[in-house]
From TrEMBL:
Every Polyphosphate kinase C-terminal domain range: 364-528, 535-705
Gene Ontology terms describing biological process: polyphosphate biosynthetic process
Identification of the protein by name: Polyphosphate kinase
InterPro entries: PP_kinase, PP_kinase_C_1, PP_kinase_middle, PP_kinase_middle_dom_sf, PPK_C_dom2, PPK_N_dom, PPK_N_dom_sf
Co-factor requirement: Mg(2+)
Gene from which the chain derives: ppk
Recorded GO CC terms: polyphosphate kinase complex
Record-annotated active site: H467 (phosphohistidine intermediate)
């Protein structure tokens, strides 16, 4: 056993409550010998490289103009979550004194410094792209204006809007008049106000105002000015009204500067056995709001004396992650920028295609009885799944519905269908994950709604997150009890299904449905550990089964047989799986991967990963599905899965991968993967440099997401003929 593995096993006992530490510790990010080639990319740096790919979309002039603005919002939202979760974990490790290179390959402090440096570079690039996009908007007569650029008509409009809508929501706090600095909420933007008396600085006033973007629109359309369409931000509407707010003070100048604090969002669940898990998660959500600071962003134009005052009063003057930024923060709000301008400013709207095997059926259950169905979102509609639930709810022969829920839509039709099933006398069991990060409050709400309706709720498995995507319907058919199962790569969420690329198998195959029934029995009775012949179930044996498939490819390569692995996933971080892929590459196995997000594997290392190619596709939809294909000496094995190859997925979550047995569906998945591999428009090359170079060649232009839609559309046309 290697040294880092020994240390990992020992430290597991110490940090057993803090699983986020263990993910970091398990991955030996870098080699110990300074002259060795670096075989692992640190996961935090790889994630920042992914977010740089998002920023590339905002920079790309071929992307419709207002979609580029949305990508700036996505980039900002991603970065906020990164600091709340990943940097929060790093800070915990630093606070705990974890620093030995033998444990993690590189110390958390060193990673934190590299993160900080990379984030500053990305922030500078963000500002450049934002400036470029706004200038292009101006060429189209769309202006984002501030309080200094208004004409008389706009000023009159804003004066009324400020008094009626904004002023009642503002609570200025005079900072010099109170002993302690007010508590700053996580990722909420504030304006620090400098009410300045030029010749009497001692009598100058400092104030703090929360920007109420949670209850008011961040962007407001103004009356047109000389044929120009104008939008102003809520921050600047407040600046516009500063004279009104502070009219009782004597001052020469007044300025407002944005600040934002990001806090550690990791939940600590206590061990009090007298409390239900529901109560523990609810209490932990309250504690999250008081999490430790992990990033402080401020307007770089803020006067030094005001910044110094703020940092000292917050007791963060020596803080590692002090990030100078622009005038506006929380750029994630650009995802909700007003719809303005022609249709050419947006992606072409393509309606979901009908599924070739479902369009002639009135009954979803009848269609699934006929053959296995594979759905591809967002190219085909998620409504098929909701239709299945609705049909099951009123079918007199359906006796029960069981489902796992991780993230659901705000106004969930899935939940509504389940409640309807309860009203129709069906037994409904819902395994709902209360620890789905940032969806905890929503899931608590839906848990109460379902419980009130009469559903049987199982709130997960102690010590594990339930991340599998399973639905199981039981129906009486004559003398038989028949099961129908849905196994997916993405959440049962009609909102994200319009934006995320995912797959769902609908089947009544007895081998598969029998094992799905076993998984739900495990949720009910955690002491029952089953053997699964067909499904791959984590944390029980998914890792081992994937390992055996890789070992089989290695064996075949050494015997001179065809050997390859083609896979698609969101993240590849698990060091054991990476080492096995390296071993396979050394044996001659040809490996092609599509990894949208974090990839700690380094392709192209001579003698180590020469036979591995990795690309990442970032486009208008979020690539989210997990697909695995193994050559198996010509008898290919196909799987779709809810799990990435990360420690958390393979060892600390309940995940399910299902085989695809239907020959036609295998062919469909093969075509889908082949389209991904030849993308030369939105695919980036993943390498050690993390420089995100686009795949460019002399082949026919291919854009995977557009070509996948065209492939499924052609399927329909072929069926018609």
């Amino acid at each position: 056993m290697k040294l880092y593995e020994v240390l990992y096993n020992r430290i597991t006992v110490v940090f057993s409550k803090h699983n986020s530490y263990l993910t970091f510790l398990k991955l030996k990010n870098m080699s110990f010998m300074p002259n060795e080639v670096n075989e692992y990319v640190n996961r935090e740096i790889s994630w920042l490289s992914f977010n740089a790919r998002v920023l590339q979309e905002a920079k790309d002039p071929s992307v419709p103009l207002l979609e580029r603005l949305k990508f700036l919002g996505i980039f900002s939202s991603n970065l906020d979550e990164f600091f709340s979760v990943r940097v929060g974990t790093l800070q915990r490790m630093i606070d705990a004194g974890v620093k030995s290179k033998a444990m993690v390959g590189v110390s958390p402090k060193k990673v934190m410094k590299e993160v900080h440096s990379t984030v500053l570079d990305l922030r500078d690039e963000f500002d450049k792209v934002f400036t470029r996009v706004t200038k292009e908007l101006e060429t189209q007569n769309i202006y984002i204006v501030d309080e200094t650029q208004l004409d008389d008509v706009q000023k009159a409009f804003l004066k009324v809007y400020f008094q009626e809508k904004v002023r009642p929501r503002l609570i200025p706090v005079m900072l010099k008049d109170i002993p302690d600095f007010p508590y700053l909420k996580n990722q909420v933007i504030y304006l620090v106000i400098d009410v300045r008396k030029k010749w009497d600085p001692q009598n100058s006033k400092f104030a703090l105002i929360e920007v109420p973007a949670d209850v008011l629109p961040r962007f407001v359309n103004l009356p047109d000015s000389q044929g120009r369409k104008c939008v102003i931000m809520l921050d600047d509407i407040i600046r516009f009204g500063l004279d009104d707010i502070f009219s009782t003070f004597d001052y020469d100048s007044i300025g407002a500067y944005t600040i934002k604090l990001t806090r550690d969002a990791e939940l600590d669940i206590d061990d009090d056995v007298t409390k239900s898990f529901f109560e523990k998660v609810s209490e932990s959500l309250e504690e999250r709001k008081k999490g430790q600071p992990v990033r402080f962003v401020y307007d770089r134009e803020i006067p030094y004396y005001l910044l110094d005052f703020t940092l000292k009063r917050l007791d963060i003057e020596n803080f590692e992650n002090l990030v100078p930024g622009g005038k506006y923060h929380n750029a994630k709000d650009f995802m909700g920028f007003p719809k303005i301008g022609p249709e050419s400013f947006y992606y072409e709207k393509k309606h979901p295609l009908p599924h070739k095997d479902l369009r002639n059926y009135k009954s979803m259950l009848a269609a699934i009885r006929e053959k296995d169905i594979l759905l591809h979102y967002p190219y085909q509609s998620f409504d098929y799944f909701i239709d299945l639930l609705r049909e099951a709810a009123i079918d007199p022969n359906v006796t029960s519905i069981k489902v796992t829920l991780y993230r659901v839509a705000r106004n969930s039709n899935v939940i509504n269908a389940l409640i309807n099933a309860i009203k129709n006398g069906k037994t409904v069991t819902v395994v709902i994950e209360l620890q789905a990060r940032f969806d905890e409050e929503s899931n608590i709400y839906w848990t109460q709604k379902l419980e009130d309706a009469g559903a049987r709720i199982i709130d997960g498995v102690p010590g594990l997150k339930v991340h599998s995507k399973l639905c199981h319907i039981t129906r009486k058919e004559g003398e038989d009890i028949v099961h129908y199962s849905c196994i997916g790569t993405g959440n049962f969420n009609e909102s994200t299904a319009k934006l995320y690329c995912d797959h769902m198998l609908m089947t009544r195959n007895k081998d598969i449905t029998h094992e799905v029934e076993k998984v739900f029995d495990f949720f009910d009775h955690n002491y029952k550990v089953y053997d699964y012949e067909h499904l791959f179930v984590a944390p029980l044996q998914m890792r081992n089964k994937f390992t055996r498939l890789i070992e089989n490819e290695i064996k075949n390569a050494k015997e001179g047989k065809p050997a390859y692995i083609h896979a698609k996933m969101n993240s590849l971080v698990d060091s054991e799986m990476i080492d096995q892929l390296y071993e396979a590459s050394e044996a001659g196995v040809k490996i092609k991967l599509v990894v949208r997000g974090i990839c700690s594997l380094v392709p192209g290392i001579k003698g180590r990963s020469d036979n591995i190619e990795v690309i990442s596709i970032v486009d208008k939809y979020l690539e989210h599905s997990r697909i695995f294909i193994f050559c198996n000496d010509g008898d290919e094995k196909y799987f779709i899965s809810s799990a990435d190859w990360m420690v958390r997925n393979l060892d600390r979550r309940v995940e399910v991968a299902t085989p695809i047995y239907d020959v036609a569906l295998k062919k469909e998945l093969r075509e889908y993967m082949d389209i991904q591999f030849v993308d030369n428009t939105k695919a980036r090359i993943i390498n050690e440099a993390q420089d995100n170079k686009y795949v460019r060649n002399n082949c026919k232009i291919c854009r995977a997401q557009e070509d996948t839609y065209a492939f499924l559309e052609k399927q329909l046309q072929n069926e018609d003929t």
